[in-house]
Structure formats: structure tokens, C-alpha cells
Amino acid sequence: MAAPKVAVVGAGVIGLSTAQCIMETCPGCSITVLSDQFSPNTTSDVAAGMLIPHTCPGTPTHVQKQWFRETFTYLFAISNSAEASEAGVHLVSGWQVFKNTPKEELPFWSDVVLGFRPMSKAELQKFPQHRFGQAFMTLKCDCPSYLLWLEKRLKAAGVQMQTRKVADLWELHSKYNVVVNCAGIGAHQLVGDEKLFPIRGQVLKVHAPWVKNFIRDGDGLTYIYPGIHRVTLGGTREKDNWSLSPDPGATKDIFDRCCSLEPSLRGAQEIEVKVGLRPARQCVRLQREVLSQGGVKLQVVHNYGHGAGGFSVHRGTAKEAAHLVGECIAALQDSSSRAKL
Ligand code: FAD
């Protein structure tokens, strides 16, 4: 069989990292990333890029933890290399604070992030409305920089990038042996997945270089995440809302909530409003499927539905998707050698 041709649909953090893992695990493949949008116009560009996982009810905790650990380990090595600034990956310390002590005092990811511990009474004095808190250090991606860094590495390794909207995965069958679906919320239309729904998120990106520590309130609706260039202030979570237009009422509400956690933000400048649709699902769809029409088959791998935590687990799910692509190629090679007998 000639070098297998793999198409990855989608150029958000999931598509690009999946293409990268395929490149690493199947070096003989020819890979093309097909996407109607590239950075800076994806949901992944809007994200804060913090590595704090969101619990996904349909995925076993040990699997979520494994995905998070693999992602953390991978990005930690980048943050500790000469690439860190170009890739936009850095360590950040801060606090997660609660008005009431949470039921689960030790989240499943507490031993993956660094230095996780309860906050001291003295630290809690910074947050007079909160009674309990956790301090730790985690990683953060400056999302557009990280996406461009991934794209650059892929192009340097010979991966093709094509701007194209795919209406149906089947339209790729004549040109590619394996198709990987990393279309994020676009998979709702692309493969008609009714279990996938948007959770609209609005954030503000502001200039406030004196803010150095992250602050996350309780379940994470309100947060302040300092990045390399800008601080991300969040947020909103609106289930089934497909609107990408900024809501001025939400902008004011987010800003006020963040200022009540960090009053110095009243002096923030250059407020930019961004909106994105989190691709939410009961669990990430990470599986093989064989499409078939008139006796012709197309090997497909799905990797979408990462909801509010795509950055936190992207490398772990990309590795698993690349493994599934390897299985598809082995199946194709097996049937091609049997056909020759
Ligand atoms: P996308 O980035 O949407 O990429 C999908 C790609 O598929 C795009 O390139 C699109 O153009 C392409 N596509 C879609 N349909 C088609 C088609 N038919 N044909 C061709 N191409 C197609 N996660 C974290 O871990 N930490 C955070 O701090 C964080 N903060 C967030 C804040 C906000 C406000 C939002 C909205 C999300 C946040 N997230 C965060 C979640 C994270 O952004 C997502 O989980 C992640 O970006 C999903 O990546 P993706 O590649 O699947 O989707």
C-alpha cells in the first residue's frame, strides 16, 4: 500500500494537535489539515487556555486524569524550553476560592498541577467574601500563539493546510484513506450529532500587566487568568445559545464580577470582547467509525466535543486519536495484502 493519506478536518487546538500526534506516531503518512477557519478565527483562539480540567460526566475520571496528565507533562516541557515564548506556554500561580467549602476538597487533578494546597488564613484575607481556597501552580497557553506555533511546526514537517468547508465527510473518500473529524461545534452539522450542543462563552481580554496571579471563583464562572500579553476575564456559560455577537450587558457583568475579586482591575485598559461556542457533549467523542457507500469504505476517527476543557486535555485526546488512526491504517494494510493473495 502507498503512503496512507490522512485528512484532519478542523484547525482548532484539537485538529492541530491531532495532526501533530499522527505525524509523530505514523511518520509514513501524508497529512492534510482541511478547515474553513484557521487561527485567529476559531473557538480555540477565544479560550483562556488555562490547564484546569472540567469534569466530564460521561468519561471515567481515571481517563480524564490521564488525558490531563499527558497534556500537562507535554506543555510543562515546552514551558521549560527555549520555545516557551513563541509557543505562548507558561506557568502561572494563583488561587481557586470558594464562598463555602466545596464537597470535594481535593479535585481529581490536584496531584497533576504543582504545589496544590489549601490556602492559609492570611492568604484568604485577600478575599473577604470567601471562606475556603486552594493555591496551586498550573500552565496556561496564550491560545493564538500556541495555535500558530503548532501550525508552523506542522507546515515545517510537510503537513498541507487547506482552507475548505467540508459539507460531508464522505466527500473526502476518493482522495484520503483516513479522515479525522476534529470540527468542534461544527460537528453538529458535519455529522449531525444531536448530542453535541454549544455552551456560549463571552470573555474580556484586557491590558492589566500588574495582575500576575490567577483567581478562579468556585465553579469557574468568574475568573481572572493572566497571560503573556493580556489578562482574560470571564465569563459566561449559556447552554444552547449559538450567538457569536457580544452582549454589552454581559461585558459589564463580567467586568464587575472580576473587579469584586481583584479591585485593581478597575484600572484595566484596552478592553476587547470575545465570544466562543464550547463544543459540549456528555463525553468527548473519541472513536473509530467505518463509513460505507455502495461497497466502498472510508475509515473515520472522531475527536470532538471537548466542551469547556479542550486545552486542558488536548494532547491526551490527540494521542488517543492518533492511536486510532494507526489502527485504521493497519486495517487498510491488512485488507490490501489479503486482496493481493
Ligand atoms: P475549534 O477551536 O472550534 O476548532 C474547530 C475547527 O473545525 C475550526 O477550525 C473550524 O473552522 C473547523 N470546522 C468546523 N466545521 C467544519 C467543516 N464543516 N469543514 C471544515 N472545517 C470545519 N478550555 C480550556 O481547557 N481552558 C480554558 O481556559 C478554556 N477557556 C475557554 C473560554 C471560552 C470563552 C471558551 C468559549 C472556551 C474555553 N475553553 C477552554 C474550551 C476550549 O476553547 C475548547 O474546548 C476547544 O477550543 C475546542 O477545540 P476544537 O479544536 O475542538 O474546536
Structural features, described:
By secondary structure, this protein is α/β, with parallel strands linked by helices. It has one domain: 3-Layer(aba) Sandwich (Rossmann fold), CATH 3.40.50. Helix content is 31%, strand content 29%. The chain is built from 9 helices and 15 strands. The strands form 2 sheets. Strands 3, 4, 5, 8, 9, 10, 11, 12 and 13 form a 9-stranded mixed beta sheet that branches. The protein has a 6-stranded mixed beta sheet with strand order 6-2-1-7-15-14, covered by helices on one side. Helix 1 packs parallel to helix 6, helix 1 packs across helix 9 and helix 3 packs across helix 9. The longest helix is centred in the last third of the chain and has 31 residues. It binds flavin-adenine dinucleotide (FAD). Flavin-adenine dinucleotide binds next to helix 1, strand 2, helix 2, strand 8 and strand 13.
Give a short summary of the structure.
About 30% of the residues lie in helices and about 30% in strands. The chain is of the alpha/beta class.
